[in-house]
Design goal:
The protein is α/β, with parallel strands linked by helices and 324 residues long. It has ten helices and 13 strands. The strands form four sheets. It has a six-stranded parallel beta sheet with strand order 2-1-3-4-5-10, with helices on both faces. Strands 11-8-13 form a three-stranded mixed beta sheet. A two-stranded parallel sheet has the order 6-9. Helix 2 runs parallel beside helix 4, helix 4 packs parallel to helix 5 and helix 8 crosses helix 10. It is globular. The N and C termini lie far apart (47 Å). The mean pLDDT is 94.
């Protein structure tokens, strides 16, 4: 077994080939924008039609040809409570295959720096709040998205194993709930904030007198604008090296009921909001301890109000062409 190499993080080579897996999605597109703004000249990406990351032979062939020096693995099968509860087998199988193929191909082709992105759902349902990185694997997961969480936990352990066995300075980051441009606003596949934006926008457009949301509205959630995450990703690649995954968030949370009120106000909806308490709430609270990332020199900059206003504007501009 190889010893971990002595590696000192520093500025990445702006001319090196940089592969962003999932560059069309919410996270990947934000990372590509951030890299472009930072002056990277050789950013590459493949659509799912061009490269199915579940196809091991195709992934290995792509890496052998492209030879990226840096990789961010932002590709994943994602969804909200409904999608995760309905298709757990696909969420587990697809994400495991994507991760195994990309990480194995990156290792075989000597990728120098790799950032694996997971999700805060990796932590136990009743983890002490705010959730520290060392809460991983200390309790039971939230049942509504445990399959997805297990896949992401496997990704973290895979990165740690590569560090131990091959000495490569790869890292992992676990963002909180994300939102922003290029999000999934579909009725069946979206997360809570984009779902609320769509629901209240449509209610306003149709003149609906009431909107019904899932659950009680009491769970607390932390929200991070995806452009903030992208900025954090570049910062970590250039300033952090460690086996432990880093939490990425704002360090503050808000109830679902409060976020619904904020979205309704921003959209301009003046009707009534009802809550279907027969539907699941999910985890009661999910607030990340972000002190480790702060110690590494990064904190969030985009306020929730500002971020929601930007996202509502983007949604209205693109509503006709959004994926279903």
């Amino acid at each position: 077994m190889a010893e971990e190499v002595q590696f000192s993080p520093g500025e990445l080579d702006r001319g090196a080939t940089f592969y962003v897996a999932g560059h069309r999605g919410l996270v990947g597109s934000a990372i590509q924008r951030r890299l472009e703004a930072a002056g990277f000249e050789a950013i590459i990406g493949q659509t799912s039609a061009q490269l199915d990351l579940r196809d091991r032979d195709a992934v290995f062939a792509f890496f052998a040809d492209a030879k990226p020096r840096y990789v961010v693995l932002a590709a994943a099968k994602v969804g909200g409570i409904l999608a995760n509860s309905t298709y757990p087998a696909e969420f587990l199988s697809d994400n495991l295959r994507i991760q195994l193929n990309v990480l194995d191909a990156a290792r075989e082709n000597d990728v120098e720096r790799l950032l694996f992105l997971g999700s805060s759902c990796i932590y136990p349902k009743f983890a002490p709040q705010p959730i520290r990185e060392d809460a991983l694997l200390t309790g039971h997961l939230e049942p509504t998205n445990d399959a997805y969480a297990i896949a992401k936990i496997a990704g973290i352990l895979h990165v740690q194993a590569v560090r131990r066995q091959y000495g490569l300075p790869w890292i992992s980051a676990m963002p909180t709930n994300l939102y922003g441009p290029n999000d999934n606003f579909s009725p069946t596949g979206s997360h809570v904030l984009p779902a609320l934006i769509r629901r209240y926008h449509e209610a306003t457009a149709t003149g609906a007198k009431s909107v019904t949301n899932w659950g009680t509205g009491t769970p607390r959630r932390e929200f991070l604008h995806v452009d903030d995450l992208a900025d954090a990703c570049l910062h970590m690649l250039e300033h952090y090296d460690g086996a432990e995954q880093l939490n990425v968030g704002t360090g503050t949370d808000i109830t679902i009921r409060e976020i619904a009120d904020t979205v309704a106000t921003t959209v301009g909806y003046s009707g009534e909001t009802n809550w279907d308490t027969t539907k699941p709430d999910g985890t009661p609270q999910k607030l990340l301890d972000v002190s480790a990332l702060a110690e590494a020199g990064w904190t969030s900059k985009i306020t929730l109000q500002e971020g929601i206003e930007q996202t509502v504007s983007w949604y209205r501009e693109h509503v006709a062409s959004l994926r279903e």
